[in-house]
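Record 1 of the preview.
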Amino acid sequence: MTMRVRVAADGGAPRDGIIEGDALLVDGRRIALASAKLLSPCRPTKIVCVGRNYAEHAREMGSQPPAEPLLFFKPPSAVIGPGDTIVYPRQSSRVDFEGELAAVIGRRCRNITAAQAPDYVRGFTIINDVTARDIQTTDEQWARAKGFDTFAPIGPCIVDGLDPGALRIRTSLNGEIRQDAPTSLMLVDVLSLVAYASEAFTLEVDDVIATGTPSGVGPMRPGDEVGVEIDGIGTLTNRVAAG
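->
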């Protein structure tokens, strides 16, 4: 497995790197991982999200699982990286965390099958599908509730060689576990979701498919710290601050 990251190196332009133990290999140089500023490991043109892909989450939202995957977008302007701040917008009085596994596209594709999907997926990472829950409830569609700046933390790395159906998602708020579920509980598996999305949209390199959140979502407040951990990938940690 290769763990790929993007870093802000020497105050210059972002660089791609690979984690090797407690070090990063960047441009042929080794630097200490602890001293590096990690960025979002990908630069998507779009983030395709999947709603209600875990039955228990659908029920906790007062809904039934959809007959087909429920797709929506987050804009690339919402992307932040590990350690960056989630800004609590003044328009909302309830902002929720939603820890999710994400697939990152490695080759441009359209109308692929689930069997073909592994050839087009670069690897897997973590996304927090931050949601202004009150706005999601009142607006007729979800663009504003899901799309505020900073509402798409992604990271810390992209890892290949994982079985996306054999991982576990754990989300903590201020150190207390709030979500804990295996990805095997997804109603539609990851590779099928990639194929389904490709039937509607051309998927570009670095595009992200966020595969849905398990039950246990809940509100965050300014000053809170949220961490999403997935086996083999690591932990995506962000703090919340008032906007």
